[in-house]
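Suppose a colleague, Dr. K., hands you the sequence of a protein chain of 76 amino acids and asks what its three-dimensional shape might be. Before reaching for any lab equipment, you can write down a predicted structure in token form. Begin with the sequence itself:
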Amino acid sequence: MTLEGIREVMIRDGDDLPLPPPPREPGDVRIWSHIWLGPGVELHLDPQQAGLDPSQVRELAKQSAAILAELKNKEE
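The predicted structure, expressed as tokens, is then:
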């Protein structure tokens, strides 16, 4: 962790918030998931940074699609 990161943690004064992600460096590789939920709607996430395993990602996609369908049905 950098000195700046330590300063940010100390400013929060012991809050139970998660630590900020480390700063990105040139050459860092991240894998993003792009989940199509419907026309014009796509969910983008980094499962590793979000702390989600594959089954949790599938559940998130399933529930997000259900919410989208519910919103569209309310409009009709």
